[in-house]
Amino acid sequence: MTDDPRASSPETGDEHPRNPPAVAVVDAQTPGNVGTIARAMKNFGFSELLLVDPPELDPDGEAYGFAGHAREDVLPNAREVSFDHLVENYHTVGTTAITNEDDQHHVRFPFTTPAELADRLERVEADTVVVFGREGVGLTNEELARLDEVCSIPASAEYPVLNLGQAATITLYELRTIALDPGDVQLPDVERVRADEPSLERLYDQWAALLEEINHPEEKRAKTMRMLRRLHGRADPTVQEVTTLLGVLRRATERPDREEN
Amino acid sequence: MTDDPRASSPETGDEHPRNPPAVAVVDAQTPGNVGTIARAMKNFGFSELLLVDPPELDPDGEAYGFAGHAREDVLPNAREVSFDHLVENYHTVGTTAITNEDDQHHVRFPFTTPAELADRLERVEADTVVVFGREGVGLTNEELARLDEVCSIPASAEYPVLNLGQAATITLYELRTIALDPGDVQLPDVERVRADEPSLERLYDQWAALLEEINHPEEKRAKTMRMLRRLHGRADPTVQEVTTLLGVLRRATERPDREEN
Fold first, then answer.
1. Model confidence at B8, in pLDDT bands (50, 70, 90)?
2. Which range of residues forms the domain containing residue B57?
3. Which parts of this chain are annotated as the region Disordered (chains A, B) (predicted)?
């Protein structure tokens, strides 16, 4: 059964230094996939790459070619280790595209999705490694049986088997929340900056002035204004957008160009 | 400003047939990336691939080599179209790694994340296309200015630029919820099947019996039982796991092997 790492984690109070999981690749056949994984690691804040039975990684070859800026650190710092080393030193999460669909089999069930894994690891202090298997067959049953838990990506039942590099990319993307501090994310998961209400009200006033100016049928004005409010409301317009639109509407209402003629 | 497609969608009531967005790739340089995108499309339930100024896709080359099973349908069914065709016929979502960080610039702001985009498109009926740009520079400002909205993947501020194939993979993964019906997902985003409470109670009773049998200090038993409940509670054990553990604990308590000696 799953070994819960929280059971053995010391009570350290609120202190919780970020310690992103290591990433291990077992018996990769294609140097390009190792490079792709290294690049995703750097994109999402991971640095420790462990390779079990890796292919040769020629500095002029595909691994470095696919690694982007990770060719400067993640890839050259990768360490070759044994599968035993992973099992003995880390809380291990195996990844697989092929799961058992019920709870009668332990090897590939229960599994977490990458999103669930991110939620859970957020609250765990333990050295963790996420383990990816070889192209084609992934991790074997024998390998998965030695790992602490199993993670699988939700995908089409018709074709759930992802390419190794793509599976690792998605998994590391989902785990970014435990690897990157919010301040280190280029695009924080924040709401867009909606314009303040007084600005929006000026916008609606200007719309109303325009409707009056163009002699929009009086009995339709309230309904049209409701439509406009809903339309803009759903779009969460920014200050800049409201300002621009307000300028346009004001010109359309007041037609300063005509006065000059 | 963003053109909200819901504004023009007809009132069709609750009927909402799945109509996954099309995927467009503009001026890709590398056939392998087109193949990678085709594979991710098939993994996550997309089928309509549109190519603007594509490289040659040799059936014996990298595009087909990287496409997995998508070499049978998504890739051979891809259509070559113009950028104008996208703008004129679809609600267009441009993707970019480089955004403007404030609301003073329209071209790359506001942006949504892929997860936000999935939430929003879930409630929209309109022909939508998600547009990916060329390797290296992505979509140009001129191209983005003609698209309806912008989407960007949260990534490390130190190195936010994803490879084209990896960016498309993550975006399509996040959009799977609007492309795949829940029944078509190999791994539904469901909770694991937790064993029923009576089974868990039998497990705790057996733990208690074991503590008594091994003369665990009486003053510590309540605390130990609380720890065991918490430990198992967090792990959401399955019926099979509880059954197995119960068997082990019963043997440890009753030691039938000893009785036989």
1. very low
2. 19-184
3. 1-22
